[in-house]
Write a structure and sequence with these properties.
The structure holds 2 protein chains of 2 kinds. Chain A is mostly helical. Among the domains of chain A are: 171 residues, Cytochrome Bc1 Complex, Chain C, CATH 1.20.810; 66 residues; 134 residues, no CATH class. In chain A, 62% of the residues lie in helices and 7% in strands. A 3-stranded antiparallel beta sheet of chain A has the order 8-7-9. In chain A, strands 1-4 form a two-stranded antiparallel ribbon. In chain A, strand 7 and strand 8 form a beta hairpin. The relative contact order of chain A is 0.09. Chain B is of the alpha+beta class. Helix content of chain B is 35%, strand content 12%. Chain B has a 4-stranded antiparallel beta sheet. In chain B, helix 2 packs antiparallel against helix 3. Chain B is extended, with a radius of gyration of 37 Å. Classes of the chains: A mainly alpha, B alpha+beta. Chains A and B meet through helix 5, helix 7, helix 8, strand 4 and helix 10 of A and helix 3, strand 1 and helix 7 of B. Strand 4 of chain A pairs antiparallel with strand 1 of chain B, so a sheet runs across the interface.
């Protein structure tokens, strides 16, 4: 067998590496590792690739950005700022925009990538939530991902403040106000953060270190762990025939996913670059350097901070109290600390909460269809709804000016909606899920409507139903439908109250909240009866020799329903 | 890979389907156009190659744009430079991306493959062996028999954070003198100066309905004492001055012929309260929409703030310029725990 030079060279390299690392085993095990295919599995990849863009563009920016609050007079090419006092941080941001070729592009790439990074994380998290991908054995990886979400917020916050423009400066001032509201240690925490009084001269260098070293370092480490666990667990897959908790169906890493995921990385890079090339973001030269006096109306933070902004806007001020001479600012603490605290606690703890309610101990690798977990789906939609109301509230001034409505009325409407809308969303989502489960039941038992109405010899009309094919049937019957857990009674046979009953009762309540409302899955008897019934129809139709007049469906929709109802039940 | 003692993969499989329904296995493979038609396959190959070619053009475009469009001095010139560099780079990335994905989707083998999963837990034998090695290690260390070692190690480790954290926490808050933000630069006799033009304000020049952004005299880079920081002082001392018809004012103390001055820093979380509505005498904070009634001592009429904006008491000096008669009577800005102490 003849070998080309390229083949000899690569064999040589492989031999060199393998002799020193034994990498052959890893290649043998991983090169053809199977990953399932679904568009929603790309959401996490978008986050990963956005992070790569953030690292790349971020390195470029650090070459020119000066993280210093030393005051200088601007003398660069941007005429409106000539002679204006500004920090070196702001001046170097202007330099990046006006003097460094490609500097503005890198700034805009970095900012757009940050927005996309957070959006992709959130949407990826929703996918994992609604499909139940967080269940055993992936609870820990959910927590890792959840921590990445928090770190993403931290990265966004620390980076947003760096240019030291008037918008970001006011954002820091709000931060100072929130920090000061913390009971007992608030004033000291403010000094801790700012190195003395606000704004001081330490905050930009401190945020810079956090932003380019500490936070991205942690994110990088946790992304590594996140992906390691994905490989260890093997990816989840959507339900369907041939897919079980004991296998993984899909395409090999090499070459299909090397090309698909690698290609997708470049598509994400391209998309972010296209946005940066054509959509202006954070034009700090219009805002001017930070000055404690001016502020612009209609200024919103980046989208992932909007819910906090909205939360602060909605809370009525009456809730600040002076108790025994000490000020407790619940008007700040509730919206800025308690609400996000609750949101993040529920999110972080969800896999454990659900496992506790189910009492299930087995591993799950096949995803849930959201309809088959009605309470989870409804709770997810309720959380998203509450979050969305806060996001809208964070833009209430824009809503007021765009739609010429009263700002106060909008605020009041959101105050009410924040409590009402999630409850309503929960209720309606759960109904929709249960409705879809019922529909699955009907399809399994009766098949698809064929829109062909047949009159039998004795005058009865029936609609011909087409039974599901075996793949669709499997998809619609093979799902678990847990019942609320049973607990032992409060007293034993001798009437002694047993220990742990109270905890059991809480668990029972939680389980009932999750699983009390359920649609009974199709039983073997029901399926047999339905099949017998179908066979009967089939025989009748065969017996008629299909000579009876078929009535076109569109002429007789209403009668069809009646006849079908009487004939089928 | 599975040996006899590892948990078997079919332990994982649980079916919920009613009896009599069996898993029919994977659906049959649907051939793509290119699998059956060599022409379509050839076309896909050409499309992929063209997409990679597009990337090459993008790269060349970036090099051209780098030299052809310097950022320049105006917004339109930096936007032009940004757009051409960005479009080139976007094509450069997207060409590779779409090319690779199209290759994978239209040309690469698309028959699904199946791999077995194994339960995550180790086998009982492995677990037992793990416990055994840990026991051996613990025995080797002698920690079980020597409690002084255990106690010593725990105490040493427990104390370790202190020497590490103390210098950091000790220095990071500067002098920790949190009483500083209770006071501002305003004193009896401090003139009110316009911001940013830094001129004294003659009371007679302030017309009814007008608003003036004010800083204290002395808050200027050339006049500050060495221990004062311009930004820190300005962050506390900014004031908004408004002149109302005297009959509209509900309280006149601290005012001068209808001229009132209030701290510009919101009592909610500290944004500058900058929007004045002449008709209603309302001041609105654009950040969280706390609304203050200037005619009524800047009391809160709506929004998340609780307290009125602190008032700066003013009068005029011999020359008719507005001056403060004192500092604010309470700390300005957001609330904090020991604010009224």
């Amino acid at each position: 067998m003849t070998t080309t030079r390229l083949e000899r060279a690569s064999a040589g390299t492989a031999d060199f590496l393998d002799q020193r690392t034994g990498i052959g085993v890893a290649v043998k095990n991983f090169a053809r590792k199977i990953f399932p295919d679904h568009w929603s599995f790309l959401l996490g990849e978008i986050a990963l690739f956005s992070f790569v863009v953030l690292l790349g563009s971020g390195i470029f920016l650090t070459m020119f950005f000066v993280p210093s609050m030393t005051e200088v007079h601007y003398e660069g090419p941007w005429a409106p700022m000539h002679g204006v006092e500004m920090s070196e941080a702001f001046a170097s941001t202007l330099r990046l925009s006006f003097e460094v070729r490609g500097g503005l592009l890198m700034r805009q790439i970095h900012h757009w990538a940050a927005l996309l990074f957070m959006a992709a994380i959130v949407v990826h998290m929703l996918r994992v939530f609604f499909t139940g991908a967080f269940r055993k054995p992936r609870e820990l990886n959910w927590v890792v991902g959840f921590t990445l979400l928090i770190l993403g917020l931290a990265a966004g916050f620390t980076g947003y403040s760096l240019p030291d423009d008037v918008l970001s400066g006011n954002g820091l001032r709000i931060t100072d106000g929130v920090v000061k509201a913390i009971p007992i240690i608030g004033s000291y925490m403010s000094y801790f953060v700012f190195g003395g009084e606000f704004p001081g001269t330490d905050i930009i260098p401190r945020l810079f270190t956090l932003h380019i070293l500490v936070v991205p370092g942690l994110i990088l480490a946790l992304i590594g762990l996140h992906l390691f666990l994905v490989v260890l667990h093997k990816h989840t897959q959507f339900p369907g025939s041939g897919r079980t908790d004991g296998n993984v169906v899909g395409f090999p890493l090499f070459p299909v996913y090397t090309a698909k995921a690698g290609g997708f990385a470049f598509i994400v890079f391209g998309l972010i670059t296209l946005m940066a090339a054509t959509i202006q973001i954070n034009p700090v030269w219009n805002y001017g350097p930070y000055d404690p006096s001016p502020v612009s109306a209609g200024a919103q933070p980046d989208w992932y901070m909007l819910f906090l902004e909205g939360s602060l806007r909605l809370m009525p001020g009456q809730t600040e109290y002076v108790i025994g001479g000490y000020t407790l600012s619940l008007n700040v603490l509730i919206p800025a600390v308690v609400i996000p605290g609750l949101l993040f606690t529920v999110l972080g703890a969800w896999p454990f909460l659900e496992a506790y309610a189910t009492g299930e101990k087995r591993e799950h690798h096949v995803l849930d269809r959201p309809r088959n977990a009605p309470t989870r789906t409804a709770a997810g939609v309720a959380i998203v709804t509450g979050f969305f109301i806060l996001v809208l509230a964070g833009a209430n001034d824009l809503i007021a000016t765009h739609f010429e409505m009263s700002l106060n009325d909008i605020t009041w409407a959101f105050r009410v909606l924040f409590f009402v809308a999630p409850v309503f969303a929960f209720w309606i989502t759960k109904r929709i899920c249960l409705g879809l489960q019922r529909r699955d039941r009907d399809l399994v038992l009766h098949g698809h409507e064929s829109a062909t109405i047949v009159r039998l010899a004795h005058g009865e009309y029936i609609e011909v139903h087409k039974p599901l094919d075996e793949h669709e049937l499997w998809l619609r019957v093979n799902y678990s439908s847990p019942r609320p857990i049973e607990i032992e009674p409060a007293e034993d046979s001798r009437g002694v109250r047993r220990k742990g009953y109270r905890a059991d009762r809480i668990r029972r309540r939680l389980s009932e909240f999750f699983y009390a409302d359920r649609i009974e899955p199709v039983s073997a008897e029901e399926l047999a009866a339905a099949r017998a019934h179908q066979a009967e129809h089939h025989a009748l139709l065969e017996g008629e020799g299909r000579h009876s007049a078929a009535i076109p469906a569109e002429e007789s929709t209403s009668t069809t329903v009646d006849v079908e109802a009487t004939s089928d039940r | 890979m599975s040996t006899n003692d590892t948990p078997r993969h079919d332990e994982l499989v649980v079916t919920h389907a009613p009896e009599g329904v069996v898993d029919p296995g994977l659906p049959p493979h649907q051939p793509r156009l290119g699998d059956t038609d060599p022409k379509a396959s050839k076309r896909s190959e050409r499309i992929v190659a063209a997409l990679f070619g597009l990337s090459v053009l993008g790269s060349i475009g970036v090099v051209v744009a780098y030299f052809a469009f310097p950022p320049g001095e105006s917004v339109s010139s930096i936007q032009q430079s940004n757009m051409f560099l960005g479009l080139g780079l976007a094509f450069c990335f997207a060409g590779i991306g779409f090319g690779a994905v199209h290759w994978a989707k239209s040309i690469m083998n698309d028959h699904e493959k199946v791999e077995e999963r194994h339960p995550q837990r180790s086998s009982d034998e492995d677990r037992a062996a793990a416990v055994e090695v840990l026991k051996e290690g613990a025995a080797d260390s002698g920690i079980a028999r020597r409690s002084a070692l255990k106690g010593g190690l725990i105490t040493a480790l427990a104390l370790l954070p202190l020497p590490v954290a103390l210098p950091l926490i000790g220095n990071v808050g500067a002098d920790w003198d949190v009483s500083k933000f209770r006071h501002t630069m305003w004193r009896r006799g401090t003139r009110l100066m316009t911001d940013p033009t830094y001129r004294p304000i003659r009371a007679a020049d302030v017309t009814i309905g007008s608003v003036v952004h004010v800083i204290p005299e002395g808050l200027h880079h050339d006049e500050l004492e060495s221990d004062q920081s311009f930004m820190d002082e300005k962050a506390k001392a900014v004031v908004l001055l408004v002149r109302l018809d005297e009959r509209d004012l509900k309280h006149t103390e601290g005012s001068y012929h209808g001229i009132v001055a209030f701290s510009k820093i919101c009592t909610h979380v500290g944004c500058p309260v900058a929007l004045y509505e002449q008709q209603t005498h309302h001041l609105l904070c654009p950040c969280h929409q706390s609304t203050f009634d200037v005619a009524d001592g800047a009391k809160v009429v709506f929004g998340p703030a609780k307290r009125a904006l602190p008032q700066l008491p003013i009068t005029v000096d011999d020359e008719g310029y507005l001056i403060a008669t004192d500092d604010f009577s309470e700390p300005i800005g957001p609330s904090f725990w020991e604010r009224v102490k």
